[in-house]
Amino acid sequence: MKKIFSSLVIIFSLLMASCTPSSEARMVKSGEVWLDTDGNMINAHGGGMLYHEGTYYWYGEYKGDSTYWNPRVPSWECYRTEAGGVSCYSSKNLVDWKFEGVVLPSEQEDVTSDLHYSNVLERPKVIYNDATKQFVMWLHVDSHDYGKAASGVAVCDSPTGKFEYLGSMRPNGEMARDMTLFKDDDGRAYHIYSSEDNSTLYISLLTDDYLRPSGHFTRNFPRAFREAPAVFKHKGKYYVLSSGCTGWDPNQAQYAVADSMLGEWTVMGNPCSGKDAHITFYGQSTHVLKVGEESYMAMFDRWNKTDLINSRYIWLPLTFKGDSIDIAWQEAWDVKVVIGK
Fold it and tell me: What was the pLDDT predicted at 337?
């Protein structure tokens, strides 16, 4: 009788476990409000992901809670918030995110600082330098009217510590706005950014410490007006995913492929499929995360231009057919099934 009772208890426990929120917690539901482990709305826009020693670190723009229109930029709808700095969240499973704090705070008093809250701090990306043992952050820093068009650099000995801001520059002497970083298998790192008034995408090899341009760079897709780049590598091929330049409004994504980062890129077209694929599911690219050897996840922002803190996130599996990629719309998908985590 005891054995029967014990067996019933085990069966009941397994049934209850299958119905608990833990199975639901592995689901990614794009476009919905995402909460951190403290129950607060995740605030990490235009972000990037770093995987380091078994943990994912998500860095993004920490938006202020009041959106306003800047009339001093008449050429486009310059909705913005006060810059809150760069936030960091950590996770073991890509679903449950712990808020680690604002790792690069904005400056509240010094109006001459790049990091003053009245300025623009966008698209933060962090990579780890194995030689220097430093976490290196690059981000787009700009004046309130987007006239500065520069890149800022910060470093830290910890992925969640306070980063030390080293200053800004116009890399290779040219404008730099939307940007990303890419670290190759050989340890070389690249800074990819929209330049020449966003008309041309630059790919710049960094110095060995990742803190400066090396002087080796290429100009890509001239006069094509591409922004929001995300770069990744698969089976020896390099890919860059990007957006057109239509302000806060969505447009059709595009990707290109090359045999080397500083080589010739071939435009392949729109990688998205399914509902609203022609406008990137109302989103804009920000990062592509490689998980393990074969799995990839594409990250997008769905901007809410009049209430930017309430912009949402879209994460979708990215799959390959030969050298071609496909990012198919899904209302929800199971992280554990798709990427095995």
Answer: 84
Quickly list H helices, 211-318. none
Per CATH, the homologous superfamily of domain 33-339 is Glycosyl hydrolase domain; family 43 (2.115.10.20)
Residue 125 to residue 25: CA distance in whole angstroms: 26
Give which of 60, 184, 285 is closest to 325, Cα–Cα: 285
Which pair of tokens denotes residue 20? Answer: 């608990």
- This prediction's pTM: 0.92
Task: Report residue 141 as tokens.
Answer: 């820093």
Give the whole-angstrom CA distance, residue 174 versus residue 28.
39
Question: Sign of dihedral through CA atoms 195, 196, 201, 202?
Answer: negative
Return the domain boundaries, the chain. Answer: 33-339
Tens of pLDDT, residue by residue over 133-143, are 999 999 999 99
Q: What is the DSSP string of 256-278?
A: EEESSTTS--EEEE--EESTTGG
How far, CA to CA in Å, does 163 sit from each of 18, 92, 121, 253? 42, 22, 14, 32
Residue 6's pLDDT is 43
Per-residue model confidence (pLDDT) at position 302: 98
